[in-house]
Design goal:
By secondary structure, chain A is mainly α. Chain A is built from 13 helices and two strands; from the N terminus they run ααααααααααββααα. In chain A, about 65% of the residues lie in helices and about 0% in strands. The longest helix of chain A is centred in the middle third of the chain and has 31 residues. The model of chain A has no long low-confidence stretch (mean pLDDT about 95).
Chain lengths: ~325, ~250
């Protein structure tokens, strides 16, 4: 989920007749739900699209540690601190795992990270919003991990084998994070002071719409979706996923005793779904373009970490080389 | 000092040092030199804070004044904190971060190893569990000290600087006071002489392999953490770490 607006390079789908024999064979495999593995032939567009999507996803895991790092030094109890630390550690692990999946496609982790630092690669827009009170740690777990899971559960069936397997593993851990996040909010709403309850509502007010934006633009504004769906990189449309998320989240919101900052949110008896108001798409595109509240800080922090750590990585390489030479000399 | 008083004091020292070093590592979230290090740092921090919780829980039972582990951690001010000064020193560059970790890990490893045979069963149990984690911490920090010491010219210079900066805080790790002696005599805590010998032995061995020069054994040492006399850093660490508990004292659940 953590991938939005992934370019496929295709303006429209090729017909079977327009495909080369290799492309046709590939498409038939995808249609038959046979997983594509690293050594299999694949169209260049498929490979590039996957590299973009998986790297975005990996970047999101890593950048996503920052809004939580903002509170990990201020967590209110030992239990909550330990939970948040474990979550952050999981995210670093997801990042590593996803970069590895991406490298099976011939991409290079350092190069892709460099693109991120130059502002050429995307990551989920949600992490460009600040975390302003402790309840944000609950709301991020519940809404952001919740939205990610809706997308990733479907991606467990994505056509590329290594990505699909990464999703299966990651989903398990994220469901755990989501439950923990919800529990933070629930405990504060049930047993907290008025100030704590206000924190919870404030966190939801700020993160509600950005969480809905995580699913990306409307289907008719999503020019790359059709090709991604045909390749079964993507399995459900943005609007379908967003609706699934809303439908599962609103009852949880009501159970908390909180409200969403959306006057149009209501149950629709006829459709069997919740109706909801229009997302502020201008804000969405602004944030994607780099004009969210924290875009600059997030990239700066990541870039500094890697730049300032260069001498450490160089030392590790130099030491390993010396050790190798010593072993050979011995 | 009675043995009971010394035990409470000793448990708070174990807890506070773990906690404060864990907190320092939390500050590095998102700032490590590589993603693998990001994971490892958080992993070590997680172990330390988890161990701190175990020590706090036991301390709270013995202190028995209504305060629980969280209250001991989040509601005591700097003068009541008993952590080693080394653990509160700032992260600075990665050489200082790893040097601090290494000096502490050696102390931590030999302390826990001895505590697994403590006459206090509760302590022995916590130590046995912690020792597994700390064995890994020590292996990792030793490796990093060697990599940085014997890596490039720049990393060697930085690592030697780190040893020089931190050296004055290492005396406190191995200089016993009354509490340490009472604990040792009761068979609860480690033998101070043995601890000092083990610490010096391993530190010298690793630093030598890392082509680094240790500080002098008779160098002036900055001490006081075990008695609540800290460096200026601790106040700021606590201001951040205890913010929510201090700002919302009426909150009973989080």
């Amino acid at each position: 989920m953590y991938a939005q607006l992934v370019e496929t390079g295709a303006k429209r789908l090729k017909t079977k007749e327009e495909m080369s024999p290799e492309e046709r064979e590939f498409q038939e495999k995808v249609d038959a739900e046979t997983k594509i593995e690293p050594k299999n032939w694949m169209p260049e567009g498929y490979r590039k699209t996957l590299i973009r999507q998986i790297s975005q996803h990996a970047h999101s895991e890593v950048v996503g540690m920052l809004p939580e790092g903002n509170w990990v030094t201020r967590a209110p109890t030992l239990k909550r601190k330990l939970q948040l630390m474990a979550k952050i550690q999981d995210e670093a692990g997801h990042g590593l795992y996803l970069y590895s999946a991406m490298e099976t496609l011939g991409a290079d982790r350092d190069e892709e990270i460099e693109k991120l630092h130059q502002g050429k690669a995307k990551y989920s827009s949600i992490f460009n919003y600040p975390t302003l009170n402790w309840a944000d740690m609950g709301a991020v777990g519940w809404l952001v991990d919740g939205a990610a899971i809706v997308n990733q559960v479907v991606l467990q069936r994505t056509s590329y084998g290594p990505y699909s397997r990464a999703m299966i593993r990651i989903c398990k851990e994220e469901s755990f994070h989501q439950r923990q996040g919800y529990q933070i909010l629930l405990d504060m709403m049930r047993e907290g002071t008025e100030e704590q309850k206000a924190m919870v509502q404030d966190a939801i007010n700020r993160l509600w719409w950005p969480a809905l934006m995580m699913f990306g633009p409307h289907d008719d504004e999503s020019p790359n979706s059709q090709q991604s769906m045909a390749w079964k990189i993507k399995r459900k449309s943005n609007d379908e996923l967003r609706q699934m998320f809303i439908d599962q989240t609103v009852p949880q919101l009501e159970f908390l005793g909180c409200t969403a900052p959306d006057p149009d949110l209501k149950w629709n008896e006829e459709t069997g779904h919740y109706d909801f108001g229009e997302i502020n798409w201008q804000e969405f595109y602004d944030v994607l373009k780099g004009n969210g509240p924290c875009n600059r800080e997030r990239i700066k922090t990541r870039k500094n970490a890697i730049d300032e750590g260069a001498w450490v990585r160089e030392a590790a390489v130099a030491y390993a080389e010396k050790q190798k030479q010593r072993a050979q000399a011995a | 000092m009675t043995q009971a008083e010394a035990l409470k004091e000793y448990l708070l020292r174990l807890a506070d040092s773990d906690m404060i070093l864990g907190q320092r590592l939390c500050e590095l979230c998102g700032k490590a030199p590589a993603l693998e290090e990001e994971m490892a740092l958080m992993n070590v921090a997680l172990d330390l804070v988890g161990q701190a919780r175990n020590w706090y829980e036991y301390a709270a039972e013995l202190i028995d004044d209504g305060r629980d582990a969280d209250k001991l951690c989040f509601r005591r001010d700097a003068h009541d904190y008993r952590n080693l000064l080394l653990t509160e020193q700032p992260n600075e560059d990665y050489a200082v971060t790893m040097g601090r970790q290494f000096f502490f890990d050696v102390y931590h490893y030999f302390t826990l190893k001895s505590l697994t045979e403590s006459s206090d069963e509760r302590i022995a149990g916590i130590a046995a569990k912690s020792l597994k984690e700390v064995t890994y911490h020590l292996r990792r920090s030793s490796e990093w000290v060697k990599r940085l010491g014997d890596g490039t010219e720049e990393s060697h210079r930085r690592m030697q600087d780190a040893v020089d900066i931190l050296w004055r805080f290492t005396g406190e790790l191995i200089t016993p006071d009354d509490t340490d002696r009472v604990m040792a005599e009761a068979g609860i805590g480690p033998d101070p002489d043995q601890l000092a010998k083990d610490w010096r032995g391993m530190v010298n061995e690793v630093l030598t392999q890392a082509t680094l020069t240790p500080g002098a054994e008779d160098a002036w040492m900055y001490m006081g953490g075990k008695h609540g006399e800290h460096t200026e850093h601790l106040g700021f660490i606590l201001a951040e770490m205890q913010f929510l508990q201090r700002a919302y004292p009426d909150a009973t659940t989080w």
